[in-house]
Amino acid sequence: MHDHVMGIPLIRTADHASAERRALQRRARRGELTVVRPGVFVEQHDVEDLWPEMRHLLLLRATASSVRRPRAISHASAAAVHGLPFVTPPPQKVQVIDPRRTHAETTSLLQVHVAPPGSSRPRRFADTPPTTPVDFCGAAVTSLVQTLVDVAAVACAVASIPMLDAALSERRVFAEMLVDEAEASPRRAPARVQAAIAMASSLSGSPAESIARVRFRQLGAPDPVQQHEFVRPGDRRAVVDFWFPGQGVVVEVDGRAKYRDPAMLAGASSAEALWQEKRREDFIRSFPEVRLVIRLSWQDLMDPEVIRVALIRAGVPLR
User: Fold this and answer.
1) CB 207 within 8 A of CB 87
2) Which of 150, 156, 264, 270 is the most buried (most CB within 10 A)?
3) What mean pLDDT is predicted for residues 202-225?
4) What is the mean pLDDT of the chain?
């Protein structure tokens, strides 16, 4: 993702004479150029297929020179730099922290957060890569661990849990690192941070699974078993996303990419992938302890009421 975004040419009006600037503005009005931020354009064809977080990286590139130390890119903006998954839209402005500030502020380019208070106690994981700030286009960026805790302090669980899960699943951080950071530099919402860290799981296989876990918790469902394996000696095996053993219910989270993305199809056609998935589900249903298999789409995950109805119909108790 970074390589693609870093390869897109930025057109800065400051580098052009006044007549050329007017020509650039006319091209922008005709839709040939896209405004990244005031005074910075890119060719429209370069950004047509960019994900929102990739567009935010473009904004970071265009704005990095305005983020001077001791300020550092932080929160969701830092999450984009670290390549964490986004399931909610990235911010419209670049988010930074400033240790000199006592109150947050918003400027034309930046959303400035107050830096968490420092701590004199030694950090268990100091100077390890996950706890070390990085650089992006000359601007400082908060460490991966600090970024995750900062996001957990200000964002809803649907936004923060997929990021935490991904970092843990990919073994980029350990849970103890997150706890150490939260305890060493308390944030404004310590209960929210603690709850997010406690809920984070290295077993989530995708952002969609992370969102499903958040929805189950919001609806008051019992915590399911993640990545449960159904196996029969001498036969195939299948690992399911979620298993509610008390109710005999399997929940599988599907996305259209599962049947359309060439990387996920692994050479098979969409029809072949659908047939293989049907055979896999038949195998899961063949176990006597399995009463029902629920399939949730990405669209379903965006509507908690859809999930509530599906769980109630399946007999999964909710609060």
Assistant:
1) yes
2) 150
3) 97
4) 92
139 has which bridge partners?
Answer: 136
DSSP state of 200: -
CB 243 within 8 A of CB 228: yes
For β-strands 40-43 and 249-253, DSSP reports them as: unpaired
Record the pTM.
0.91
Contact between residue 263 and residue 317 where contact means Cβ atoms under 8 Å apart? no
If 0-12 CB within 10 Å is exposed, 13-18 middle and 19+ buried, where does residue 140 land? buried
The alpha carbon dihedral of 47, 84, 160, 106 has a sign of negative
d(C-alpha 160, C-alpha 196), whole Å: 7
Cβ contacts of 98 within 8 Å, gap of 6 or more: 70, 71, 112, 113, 114, 115
The pLDDT-based confidence of 2 (bands split at 50, 70, 90) is confident
Percent of the chain whose predicted confidence (pLDDT) is above 70: 93
